[in-house]
Amino acid sequence: MFINRKGTSVKITLVRHGRPVASSNPRVTAVGFAKWVRAYNRSFVRPDSLPPQELQDKFLNSYTFSSDLNRSRHSAEICLGKEADLVLGDLREMDIPRLKLPFSMSVNSWLVIARLCWFLGISGNSESYKTGCKRIVSVVDQITTKVSEHEDVAIFGHGISNRLIAKELKRRGWAIKYSSKGFWGQTELTNITNCSS
User: Fold this and answer.
1) Running DSSP on this structure, what letter comes out for residue 40?
2) Number of Cα atoms under 13 Å in the Cβ half of residue 115
3) CB 69: neighbour CB atoms within 10 A?
4) In whole angstroms, what is the distance from residue 27 CA to residue 15 CA?
5) 96 near 114, Cβ under 8 Å?
6) What is the DSSP letter of 7?
7) Domains in the chain, please, with CATH?
8) What's the pTM value of the predicted model, to 2 decimals?
9) Is 187 helix (H, G, I), strand (E, B) or coil?
């Protein structure tokens, strides 16, 4: 177990939200995909998408963050039985570019292409990859400040943003202890140095 200079363990757990009500994979046009993204961003978690009991037990004494998107706030409420201690807009998912392509395809295909374009710097009117990464650096500063106070922090966020948060934490000396994928997936990190590094 990694410890800080006080001799106590410090931990950050990144949790992806549960399955949203709007999670689906229809065949749509570019306009239909834009509508799907808007609906997904407004969506709450499906009633049948519940976190494992061990995940609920894990955060009984954690300081908790949540993205301000409904699916993450709702996931925190389902898992904790209350709203997260702090809701941050900067924890929201990375923007998805709206691509004006003249054909239809499945939502999953649109997501793959849109994400590839975003990583390559094609973002249109959406938040760029560079701007998104700056946002993540800022939010990691806030997270690590809370870890120095509480030593056990949980974040209810999103797939891509959680990965970028984990990447920034690793850059600062944190190590991934455990990781799982999918809805309710989690990445647990510990620190080998001072938790405020």
Assistant:
1) H
2) 12
3) 24
4) 29
5) yes
6) S
7) 11-191 (3.40.50.1240)
8) 0.90
9) strand
